[in-house]
Amino acid sequence: MSTSIIHKKDKSSPSFKFVRDITKVTGGTLLTITMLSSAIAAGGLVGLAISFRDLPDVRALRTYVPAETSYIYDIKGKLFSSIHGEANREVTPLDKISPELKRAVIAIEDSNFYYHRGINPISVGRALVVNYQKGSVREGSSTLTMQLMKNVFLSRQRTFSRKLAEGVLAIRIEQILTKDQILEMYLNQIYWGHNNYGVQTAARSYFNKSAGTLTLAESAMLAGLIKAPQEYSPFVDIKKATEQQHIVLRRMRDLGWITPQEETKARTQKIKLGKIKSFQGSASPYVTNAASGELIQRFGRDAVLKGGMRVQTTIDAKMQTMAEETVVNSHRRLRRQGVRADQMALVAIDPRTHFIKALVGGVNPKKSEFNRAIQAIRQPGSAFKPFVYYAAFASGKYTPNSIVSDTPVRYREASGYYYPKNYDSSFSGSMSIRKALEVSRNIPAIKIGRAVGMNKVIETCRILGINSPMEPVTSLPLGAIGVTPLEMANAYATFASYGWQSDPTVIARVTDSSGNVLLDNTPKPQLVLEPWAAASLTSVMQGVINNGTGKAAQIGRPAAGKTGTTSSERDIWFVGYVPQLATAVWVGNDNYRPLGQGSTGGTFVAPIWRDFMSKALKGIPAQNFRPASDFDRPKR
């Protein structure tokens, strides 16, 4: 934008009209006094510029970056949420702002903007007379440049000293920035009401469109808000907003910047309002909270709330909706079935990338924002057993067909003897490891764990990203530790990929508002497990679904998984995977209240896993797992 939108100084210009009208009324006397006062004021401000050495250094504006809203999207670009501190702002270049809006703002706020050098002598003189008569600051004389200085550097206190400071800073800034640079900064800086800072967020909120597509009618209404955004907001009082719009249009016509016909057309144009967006919640709060936490840990809170980040998450919005619906509907069904469960969590991960595709941290985020998917530390029960059997296979000493005895046994502990038992308190004698895991027998898992070494089992857990404290005690194979649903989904995803692992993340890519890449989480997989052992374990866990405790999880395609139920029935799980997706589902209560006798992962959680996976995999071709024979067996 430039002075091309403003007419040259002639008899129709606002300055000429002002002088002409004053001369008519006073015979030139008041004009002479006003002009003399203006000259003295302008000269005085220049002199004061030397003495105001403690004022902010306006050169900082050359690199000034205003606080800007950050936006969080799904993997395909669908907006989940915007996050910001006090200022909800999206910075936009001047050439991306509607010319109609630029004209409207200049017309009503500072019609001589492209002619003065920071202060407007005529306005200063007029304000000096009025304020002298009233004994206080009653009438403003602020140019756009002065308003910008006030918003960036100064307080809002209405005093003569602050006015002088505005003038000094305005003169300084006009010496180092162009008019277009000042106008761009002004339009992106000022407050437009309803927590909208900058014209882009204002345009999206008031009219649900970008600042570059605003019509004359919409531009005039926005420009009319600047004086008192909350009072003149069309969301608050459409009548007052329309009155202000007409004032702006009339001013533009008087300046000769629009024709009477254009004014009439704008006055009669029907305004279609948007909706207040600044305080809207996230479409998926658990996702937004997880992403925000990851960002704050890496960049710091201020950078996230004020840095204008564009965050592409790994989440698939459609899959996320399926997950949320599954959790809500399944919770209702469990309550009808007599399971006293208040909460649930679900995490789905792509084993090929370890990108989190869906994440639900509870039944209702409006009632509780605690994200159980990544924060709840719960016992996994028998869902822990695959870690034991993987360690056994990786040792080279065991295969799925190795025999183990499911017979009574006791172990000496520091507190006395420990007598482990199975869930049904029975014993089945000799059986293969495959069978022992399929029907989830406890004693075989303990025996194999002790044979391999509990420290080896813990080492496996650490490799798989499970960082909860754990001791090499005899009961470890039964899942007497705390894990999060995310840790379980991530660990099983590594089994699904035959031992290839990347760091699990909810963030794929982060840029600043200019498109500069701040973070690129392109997967960097590393082989962390023995492929033969992982493939052997997958084969065994296919049997859990086909023949064992997880039959309710059958989805009509090759799948592997494991049920989990703690002895106190406080936590029930199902964790499973296909080659393209691994999902963990947990059910329980925040206060650790038992769920009720007979509440098992196989009976109540496996169907939840099945429902979600069936929807999430719809249209995706089924894949077979690679057999263990494709890989070299580790040597003993």
* Average predicted local confidence, pLDDT: 87
- Overall structural class, as computed from helix and strand content, comes to alpha+beta
Could you name the CATH homologous superfamily of the largest domain? Answer: DD-peptidase/beta-lactamase superfamily
Q: Judging by the overall fold, what is the CATH architecture of the largest domain?
A: 3-Layer(aba) Sandwich
Biggest sheet strand line-up:
2-1-5-13-14
How would you characterize this protein structure?
The protein has 23 helices and 18 strands. It has 636 residues and is of the alpha+beta class. It has two domains: 3-51 and 87-268, Biosynthetic peptidoglycan transglycosylase-like (Penicillin binding protein transpeptidase fold); 320-630, Beta-lactamase. The strands form six sheets. It has a five-stranded mixed sheet with strand order 2-1-5-13-14. It has a five-stranded antiparallel sheet with strand order 7-6-18-17-16, sandwiched between helices. Strand 9 and strand 10 form a beta hairpin. The longest helix is centred in the first third of the chain and has 23 residues, at 29-51. The radius of gyration is 35 Å and the shape is elongated.
Give the SSE map:
Layout: H1 14-26, H2 29-51, E1 70-73, E2 79-83, E3 88-89, H3 99-109, H4 121-134, H5 144-152, H6 160-176, H7 179-189, E4 196-197, H8 199-207, H9 216-223, H10 229-232, H11 238-254, H12 260-268, H13 285-299, H14 301-306, E5 310-313, H15 317-336, E6 343-350, E7 355-360, H16 372-375, H17 385-394, E8 403-406, E9 411-413, E10 416-418, E11 429-432, H18 433-438, H19 442-452, H20 454-463, H21 485-496, E12 500-501, E13 507-511, E14 517-520, E15 526-527, H22 531-547, E16 560-565, E17 571-578, E18 581-588, H23 601-616
Parallel strand pairs: 1-5, 3-4
Antiparallel strand pairs: 1-2, 5-13, 6-7, 6-18, 8-11, 9-10, 12-15, 13-14, 16-17, 17-18
Helix pairs in contact: 2-4, 2-6, 3-9, 3-11, 5-6, 5-7, 9-11, 11-12, 15-23, 17-19, 17-20, 17-22
